[in-house]
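Annex B, item 7. Sequence and structure tokens for protein A, then protein B.
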Amino acid sequence: IEVCMRKLVFYPEVVGFIEEEKDQFPSLKVQYVFNSPPKLVMLDNDGQYKETIRIDNWKREHLRRFLTEKNILKAESVHSQRSIFPSISENPNLTTSQLSRNYATATGSKETKETKVKLPLSLFGGAGNYASALYISAVKAKVLEKVESEIVDLVGASKKSPLFSQFIHDVSVPSSTRVKAINDICSAAKFSEITKNFLVVLAENGRLRNIDSIIQKFVELTMAHRGEVKAVVTTVIPLPAGEEKELKETLQDLIGEGKTVSLVQKIDPNILGGLVVEFDKKVFDMSIRTRARQMERFLREPVNFDSI
């Protein structure tokens, strides 16, 4: 949904939907753009633009029905989805040790009754399923911080080593070679069993090449677990320390008590100036690039001389 925050007062139905029903549609984002009427900007699965739909006169039930028909549905729990780790979806009561040894089948050992782990966020897609399974196993084993540290360090190392990065992303490497290499790496680094077996599953399933997106989702879960909200601010040049502090305090006031803002700066000369702030599925676009595009669209619109 793209809309100007100042104009929201004129669209109570849109406001009601954003405040009370938006969270039912995890892939839906709200972007506040200066002087923009309320509209739906539809993207395909690759994030590419498809179409724009004006929703000035839509009621909230129209929005809900339209998004439901477009299959922009609320993500199901990882236990009710067809999980990429079948053991979790087929038997949610498997013990952590069973999950860490083999995510595909039960080991046959006696099951124990465990408290179900509630996900702090509903994720969807392949990366979301993998991340959710890792989070559940790490929480049950009480090694969430250790697993996060290990997995983030591994991704960081892959970015620093071209050879390791090539190995991870090369789909022509045989599965047995990938598994042996991952086992050797994890043993040398003294990774936990949860981390090691998770990486082995990725290697066996040919998903190591997707590790960046999987870990990004996993970090979203761990941040939500700690009550942290990630805010990404995009500018042309780095923000001075004073302005960064002021922005963080403003975002903290918007988010409210009980959560902590984790501010990440991103540099993008293409926005030309101003800034773009993204947090909690909201986008505040105050860039010069967006304003220039709005002006261009305005100038291209045909003039109705009858109204002059």
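Protein B:
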Amino acid sequence: MNSVHSTVSAPGQPVGADLSTTTLLTTWRSADRRRKATARRRVAVNTALTVASFVGAAVLWDLLRVVGVLPVQFFPEALEIIGRLGEELAAGFSGKLLIATGQTALTWLLGFITAGILGVIIGLAVGNSAYASATLGPLLRFVRSTPAVAFVPAAILVAGIGLEAKLLIVVFAGIWPILLNTAAGVRHVPPQYRDVAKSVRLPNLEVARTVLLPTIAPSIVSGLRVSMSLTLAVTVGVDLLIGASGLGALINQYRGVGNITSAYAGILWAGLLGTVLNLILLAVERKVLFWSPEYRRKNA
């Protein structure tokens, strides 16, 4: 006996579409909408909390001035500092702040890129070789425990007080989070990944490019995030200590002439720059690592 098979199509679906497929697609779209709505709520809550924390910090600052904990001659009002920062930014490149920011940004960017490249290369070598890890591990731990500012005299002796000395210190400070995160990521690569690479006889460089780097990308990005903030802070500090230019030097100059409000405006501006850079790297991380199971677990 012949049977007649009829196909049920959902509204808006092509004729002949299977009902189970349509149901799965509808469920997936609904779940995707819920995820996006949850993400939007999370962003809104985080933004509100961030604004509230800044407002609370400003109120606490002024309150401590009023009760006498902070001497008013050395600690201007929060709104006065914010207003001065606005004036400095409104002056554009005819003022001092943006020019000093550009000088600091150049030092930071060169140092951060150099630290990133060296950190990934050395981290791959240390993490991928038990012999290298055993040989270099103790030395790296010893050097890492040394504060970057301790190398300021040596950097001045070797490279003077120009850009080269600043870069030496910034690279030294910023390389460790990247190197250590990369090495740890390599050591935790699943063994079966390496076994597959060996079975198809991939060269070492090809293994690093197609197996190791994609697998350890979340670890590298985590190291980059830490290093980015650290190198910016060290750059401003080095400008303040040995630099004749840059944001730190400008802050020190304002302090030296008694322009305390402008000095605090420069400090506030440096903090805002670090916050913006961190947000940019977080956005890049979301775009680049959306496929990573480790990243999805961390941000679930």
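Comment on protein B: The CA atoms of residues 154 and 165 lie 9 Å apart.
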